[in-house]
Amino acid sequence: MENMPSFFANILKGSYWRKRMMRFKKESYLESSQFPFSIKPHKLKPNEIFNLHSHEFIELVYVKEGSGTHTYNQSSYSISQGDVFIIEPEVEHSYHVDMHHHLLVYNIMFQPQLLSRELEALTNVTPFVDFFYMEPFFRKTVDFKSKLTLDIHQQMEFNFLLDRILEEYRRKQLGYRFLIQTKLIEMFIYLSRCYDNIYKKPVTYSLSDAELIDQVAKFIEKHHASALSLKQVSQLCGMSQSSFTAKFKEYTGITFIQYRNNVRLRIAKELLSNTDLKVISIAQEVGFDDVSNFNKMFKQIVGKSPKQFRRESSI
């Protein structure tokens, strides 16, 4: 462990195996607030443990070599060469390698604002939404075979992209930030294509309709600002739009769109009451690109304009 960063070395020491969980802060692991990104290869030797931890940033994990066990949200899964998956912020997870194997993973760490416009544009691409947003959220309720596993040819292509990003980040020559951002978008589009090719068939769930709708409702709460469509969510659930709409309304009393809008406006009301953010900023924060549409919907559902609501809530 002589050349290993101290935070990895500390976690891998056998004496560190304790019940407490570590939380990695963005200031310690990402380059800067202007460029919230980092990439690190990390190797676990036989019989080593990367203890339970969480972090403030998104992590894309690629298993370049070996195999091991990944514990995510208190459920354990086998991982091996070619696996790619997303770890969302604040989710507890850990790794363990048995005595007969090793594990080499690449951790691509970043915050969404690094690619905010690009990620927003990609929310119109269903395979990207499935891989980047939905698969991590539903991982515990869907057979983990839904993770993305690259075949040998896809691994070669992905390794090339990964090596270019790692080289740019290490050398930090003129324009490296722009090139890394460009390569990250290329990487996400490539992974989305791979995911689409592998998972054209609907995912099979072991949940009841009520449990599945409950998971969708929780997903909307967490990703209310994302431009997720009825079509995308229906496909993820393995249903037609009409079937999903009927079941969602049966269990919630309202449609998917109504539920999403209600969540957005509830959060907007909290921001209007508790912050000094401008109305246009709040509209964007909860998922409205057009402030006039936000004002219209707010008045239609709440019965008063956002400005009037703010004035009255401050009395």
From TrEMBL:
Q: Which residues form a coiled coil?
A: none
Q: Which InterPro entries match?
A: AraC-bd, Homeodomain-like_sf, HTH-like, HTH_AraC, HTH_AraC-typ_CS, RmlC-like_jellyroll, Tscrpt_reg_AraC-type_HTH
Alphabetized, the UniProt keywords read:
DNA-binding, Plasmid, Transcription, Transcription regulation
User: Record's SUPFAM superfamilies?
Assistant: Homeodomain-like (SSF46689), Regulatory protein AraC (SSF51215)
Q: Which GO terms describe its molecular function?
A: DNA-binding transcription factor activity; sequence-specific DNA binding
Origin: domain of life: Bacteria
Q: Where is the HTH araC/xylS-type domain?
A: 214-312
Fetch the SMART domains from UniProt. Answer: HTH_ARAC (SM00342)
Q: Which Pfam families match?
A: AraC_binding, HTH_18
Q: Which PROSITE patterns does the UniProt entry name for this protein?
A: HTH_ARAC_FAMILY_1 (PS00041), HTH_ARAC_FAMILY_2 (PS01124)
Name of this protein: AraC family transcriptional regulator
Q: Recall the taxonomic lineage recorded for the source organism.
A: Bacteria, Bacillati, Bacillota, Bacilli, Bacillales
